[in-house]
Write a structure and sequence with these properties.
465 residues; 9-stranded mixed beta sheet; 6-stranded parallel beta sheet; 2 domains; alpha/beta
């Protein structure tokens, strides 16, 4: 059935939906009720994302792109979608699939989100990005500028932002159940073993070059990053260990523990990042443990406040009175290293203190918060609506607005980027939120643009909005 773009938009207007958001979907011509989704990255967490998108029943997986299509981690996706066109380079995919896709999901390593997102947005395509949004502060800034310029639907994959935790925080702050004027301290923590802990901080150089696996497009895998010879210590999730490729534990789990505090307490960007309790520091991979303190200036009714971040197996925060250890929340997706472990001293989560002596605690992802020491049932809040993946697809259709657009999640990711700079240099940094520059530290300031300060030759075009 042929339906003109004009009549389709007219129908949307009559239904009272969001016409401006619907435009990219309508323009693409997918009028059968399903979004034609292209996937950049199809193994490991990307496969979990693909399955979650497919379960909504609102999309058709229309293209698969991965730099290692012959890798074992890609087998499930390739078998499930044998007729979807396959690519190793997202640039070639976007060219070949022009007019045949309605949205792009980017589910690659931290450092490689940015170029694929920019390329898709410049083509007017809605984008979903795994967290953290980007590897550097500058990339986050550019993605916000692109979102504004191209007017496309955007969503970051902090799935808890569509669950109980999101609605509870939102309603409690709006209704005064959580009085932001009484906040005194915020804490988030993640005390699991991490991939890089196996080296115990004893890394004195990048790994030596190893034979390139058959079928791996290494040049495209590196993307905008500085050149490194191939090593198995860089791939299959190991990239998260290295400052040059990942955002460490902070970028991985901060998005699931800090996100609602950052948004609904209106934290913005910090004025200072302090680091202490560091063990296993080296200039190549993230430390074994550290404590970061992000200092945020007062805003509105909220006073100036610190957000403390604890990582490391034995680097546990002092828990508030009445705190009761919580289990592994069912909203946390199953992934390597992300399952219940009875030997774990403290599951990932957060708590915050108020000047009236009360404290609230919560877990990760979509888990609910509760008042420490209280046996009363928490106040009611809005029942969660569409899940995170469904929310994105419905937004592409013009039926909802995304809950984690880049305008919200880029500043959160910038907090992570600043924390990673403090971890990389093992020193405190002072930041000016007005100029968005690190004060009095030339080396740290250069790292706002990444390890080298410039993209690898041939990838410069993505840094122009």
């Amino acid at each position: 059935m042929h339906v003109s773009r004009r009549s389709f938009i007219g129908g949307i207007l009559a239904a009272g939906a969001y016409p401006l958001i619907a435009a990219p979907f309508a323009k693409a011509g997918c009028l059968d009720g399903k979004v034609r989704l292209a996937c950049v990255g199809i193994g490991q967490q990307a496969w979990n994302d693909i399955c979650s998108f497919a379960k909504t029943g609102l999309c058709v997986i229309s293209a698969l792109c991965d730099t290692d299509l012959e890798g074992k981690q890609c087998e499930k996706a390739l078998k499930k979608y044998p007729n979807a066109p396959r690519f190793t380079d997202f640039r070639k995919m976007l060219d070949a699939m022009e007019g045949k896709i309605d949205a792009v999901a980017v589910m690659t390593p931290d450092f490689s989100h940015f170029p694929a997102l920019m390329a898709a947005m410049k083509r007017g395509l809605p984008v979903f990005s795994e967290k953290p949004l980007a590897h550097t502060f500058e990339e986050c800034e550019l993605l916000m500028a692109a979102e504004k310029k191209y007017g496309v639907v955007t969503q970051m994959g902090n799935q808890g932002h569509s669950g109980d935790n999101y609605y509870q925080f939102r309603d409690y702050v709006e209704k005064g159940v959580l009085d932001v004027s009484k906040l005194t301290k915020l804490v988030a923590h993640m005390n699991n073993p991490r991939r890089w802990h196996k080296w115990n901080g004893k890394v004195s150089a990048f790994p030596s070059a190893q034979p390139l696996p058959k079928g791996l497009d290494w040049d495209t895998w590196l993307g905008t990053a500085a050149w490194h010879d191939f090593s198995p210590d860089f791939v299959q999730g190991e990239w998260r260990s290295w400052f040059d490729f990942g955002n460490g534990c902070l970028g991985d789990w901060g998005a699931h523990t800090m996100d609602t505090m950052h948004r609904f307490f209106d934290l913005g960007l910090p004025t200072e990042v302090q680091i202490k309790d560091v063990q296993g520091w080296n200039p190549f991979v993230f430390p074994m443990q550290d404590t970061l303190t992000f200092k945020f200036a007062a805003k509105g009714k909220r006073p100036a406040i610190d957000l403390e971040w604890y990582e490391g197996v034995n680097n546990l925060p002092e828990l508030p009175k009445g705190y009761v250890a919580h289990g592994w929340d069912s909203s946390i997706p199953a992934a390597k290293g992300s399952t219940e472990d009875k030997s774990r001293k403290l599951n990932p989560g957060k708590f915050f203190l108020l000047s009236d002596g009360t404290a609230w605690q919560g877990g990760s992802h979509g888990s609910k918060i509760k008042l420490c020491g209280s046996k009363d049932k928490p106040p009611a809040f809005t029942k969660p609506g569409s899940g995170h993946y469904k929310n994105f697809l419905l937004a592409v259709m013009g039926k909802e607005k995304t809950r984690s657009p880049f305008s919200v999640t880029a500043p959160l990711s910038e907090v992570f980027c600043l924390g990673c700079i403090a971890q990389r240099l093992n020193r405190n940094i002072t930041f000016d939120p007005a100029t968005k520059q690190i004060v009095g530290d030339e080396v740290a300031n250069r790292l706002l643009k990444g390890s080298t300060g410039t993209p690898r030759k041939g990838w410069e075009e993505f840094y122009v909005v």
